[in-house]
Design goal:
The structure is a single chain. By secondary structure, the protein is α/β, with parallel strands linked by helices. The chain has 2 domains: 2-187 and 329-344, Rossmann fold (3-Layer(aba) Sandwich); 190-327, Rossmann fold (3-Layer(aba) Sandwich), CATH 3.40.50. It is 45% helix and 12% strand. It contains 15 helices and 11 strands. The chain has a 5-stranded parallel sheet, covered by helices on one side. Strand 8 (204-208), helix 11 (215-228) and strand 9 form a beta-alpha-beta unit. Helix 2 packs antiparallel against helix 3. The protein is globular and about 60 Å long. The N and C termini lie close together (9 Å).
Length: 346
């Protein structure tokens, strides 16, 4: 089948890029042709890059300005391999997700809601299922303001989300049975990423943290890195560890995770890739239901700084003999969901 994927394939976030690539790769491994449904907006187009450059110039950060251009080129290069369609009529099936496509707090996703909730596909008579979508932190009150989206949810062949908060909210408001699945970045085997990076002998602690890291956590990270003799490599933006914006490149991203000795992250996909590559690390789920939920499902609350209540969790080991077994079960359940969804459309 030719399967159209409705997801942010053309943004400037490395996690979003890889979830799109992983879902496409998994579907093609089943013998289907995966493509992406053209999005009307990108958060990493020329205009966005120009804004990033202007912000760097105002701060006198010339290297950051150069790196913003480098990031734009890197994503453009990676996304060239994606097949993009703008007509539903050529599709046999549509998969909504993954990522925060149902986050109604975001003007970006709200503006394209009819595409991300299946309304446009229904108009073309194409069957639709969702895979690992999430509402982010969307409230029940905000969701209730869009009854047409809940009606669209009820028309899906099958519905799945990637976090318990989304499942509870949507099931209560729509009455639909909703499955809990893993993100596409865990749906594929770790070997899927092998062609995209080189193994390197290096000793570093990778920081992939959006926004300012709490000072207490930053100090713990610095102390731990010094004790273990690890260089600190900060991938994203300006923070307590880096004075300039870095080049955001999906290929560099995957190589940094694959070769890291330790990871510190407060992002969903930073968490996913720490787990996918079985890296030791510490997470910060503060303000993010989707991360806290995943850590709870894998019994990793003891590695979540946000839940530590003042106790130091940096350096607390992750027992992958236990965690990987849970991931493998979740992966098997998620693959079964997709098999059933695709079979139901035939």
């Amino acid at each position: 089948m030719k399967i159209g994927i409705a997801t942010p394939y053309n943004g400037g976030n490395c996690g979003s890029y890889w979830q799109a690539a992983a879902l496409k790769g998994y579907l093609e491994g089943l013998g289907h042709h995966g493509c992406f449904i053209k999005q009307t907006a990108s958060n990493f187009g020329t205009r966005h890059t120009a804004k990033m450059m202007a912000a760097c110039l105002r701060k006198g950060d010339l290297k950051g300005c150069t790196n913003a251009i480098g990031s734009h080129k890197a994503f453009s290069r990676c996304q060239k391999s994606f097949d993009v369609v703008d007509e539903y009529s050529s599709l046999d099936f549509v998969v909504l997700g993954s990522d925060t496509i149902w986050n109604l707090e975001s003007s970006h996703y709200l503006a394209q809601a009819h595409g991300y909730w299946g309304v446009d596909a229904f108009k073309a008579g194409v069957p639709v299922a969702s895979y690992a979508a999430t509402v982010g932190n969307t409230s029940a009150e905000l969701l209730d303001k869009h009854p047409e989206l809940l009606e669209a949810l009820q028309r899906l062949v099958k519905v799945s989300v990637r976090d318990e908060y989304s499942r509870g909210l949507l099931a209560e408001r729509s009455g639909v049975d909703i499955d809990l699945v893993c993100d596409p970045t865990l749906l594929v085997e770790p070997s899927f990423y092998a062609p995209f990076y080189k193994k390197r002998e290096s000793e570093y602690l990778l920081v992939y943290h959006f926004g300012k890291m709490p000072d207490a956590l930053a100090q713990e990270v610095k102390d731990f890195a010094k004790k273990e003799g690890l260089e600190i490599v900060s991938f994203f933006g300006v923070d307590q560890f880096s004075r300039t914006r870095q080049v955001s490149d999906p290929m560099r991203f995957i190589e940094l995770f694959a070769n890291a000795s330790y990871v510190v992250s407060n992002t969903y996909h930073g968490t996913m890739f720490t787990l996918a590559f079985e890296k030791q690390g510490v997470f910060n789920s503060a303000g993010k239901n989707k991360i806290a939920d995943m850590l709870e499902r894998l019994d990793l609350g003891g590695n979540d700084w946000a839940q530590a209540e003042g106790a130091s969790v940096v350096g607390v080991p992750i027992d992958y003999s236990r965690v990987t077994a849970k991931i493998e079960q979740l992966r098997a359940d998620s693959r079964r969901f997709l098999d059933e969804a695709l079979s139901a459309s035939r």
